[in-house]
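#data-curation
PF: Archiving a pair of folding outputs for the training set. Convention for this channel: one message per protein, sequence first, structure tokens after, nothing in between. First:
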Amino acid sequence: MRWIVFDYGEVISKRTNALPELAEVLGADPIAFESSYWAHREAYDRGLADLEYWSLVAGQSLEPQVSAQLTKIDTTGWLSVEQSTMDLIADVKAAGPGLALLSNAPSAFGRMVEVEAWSKQFAHLMFSGDLGIAKPDAEIWAALLDRIGAQPADCVFFDDRQVNIDGATAAGLHGRLWRSAAQARTDLAGLGWL
């Protein structure tokens, strides 16, 4: 069976709009907050607990209720999806290839996505925070292929980051850099998959 695997952030979703609100909750300078938010994000995506992440971002120990508030704002901020990508996903689903999602994202975000109606189109939802490994690590491609029961050549992987595409390609998948849903359609048509 052929599989089409999508990244989430800035492929399925729009870029988060939550950073100003998060900074406001902490009473932080928005520019300094954004820098800290991204500086610690990889560790969060690899399984760092919510409270530890937000305490690092804030530069101080936070109470669990503040961490929970920040986590809710953050996950909600990433839930706005691109309609053109949703249309592509629906067309892929109708055409027959299997659909999977592989995202570098914290576990808390994974739990939010799992209850979104659109996520039901995917046979598999995989989040780095649950796995303790992240793209572009070689281990994550092995975990993906094991989960979906596929050979690398039977998978097309879309991501907006070249380093992740390079990792997928090195693992034998058909890696395609995400530029737009229209470009993805062209890529899939070129492979004869759509």
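PF: Second:
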Amino acid sequence: MDTLLQFANLVLHIDKFLGVFIHQYGAWVYAVLFLIVFSETGLVVLPFLPGDSLLFIGGAFAATHEMNLGLLIVLLVAAAVSGNTVNYLIGRAIGPKVFNTHIPVLERFLDRAALQKTHEFYERHGGKTIVLARFIPVVRTFAPFVAGVSQMGMKRFQLFNMAGALFWVLLLVLLGYFFGNIPFIRQYLNVIVLVGIGAAIVPVVIGGVWKMMRKDSRGGAVRKPNGG
């Protein structure tokens, strides 16, 4: 519980933590930001890292000349692209093996038909998914992994991976650069971060719940005549 509270405090006051780190360790902040963005996008077990907030706040510090804007953008784009690539390769390597283990316990939970549907979905909509997922916390961590599991083509994946990374980094860093030091935004940054995360996650959750409810209602409609 203490660890969760400390992490929540870090996310809500990340501008203060980052400012202290810059003053104490200087250029090492670039390595830390690279590592965090790489880990959030590259390691499926770390979807909770505050990537969006870091990009915005990094841009704000670049506006006050505490960080170099060009270097920040280049490193963050490199971290986002390489992170997604590693995540994709992990999914591509272990996905088919997991679905073909022939272990009874796993076969109970893994649906090969669902894997085929996922592959077909990524063939049709994978590009849009990879780009748009950049702006949705948690989803952006799993999207490249699922793309790898579904065997989305490497060249096609990398095209949208790089486009999405560039768009994501440029938008959030430049928003921070131009607006991050406005007194009102600086004062209520933690609230803005929470609203932004909520605005990205809530529609995804509602969509998932809606699909589950529709699936259940259709299932009930099919079962009802048989039971009558």
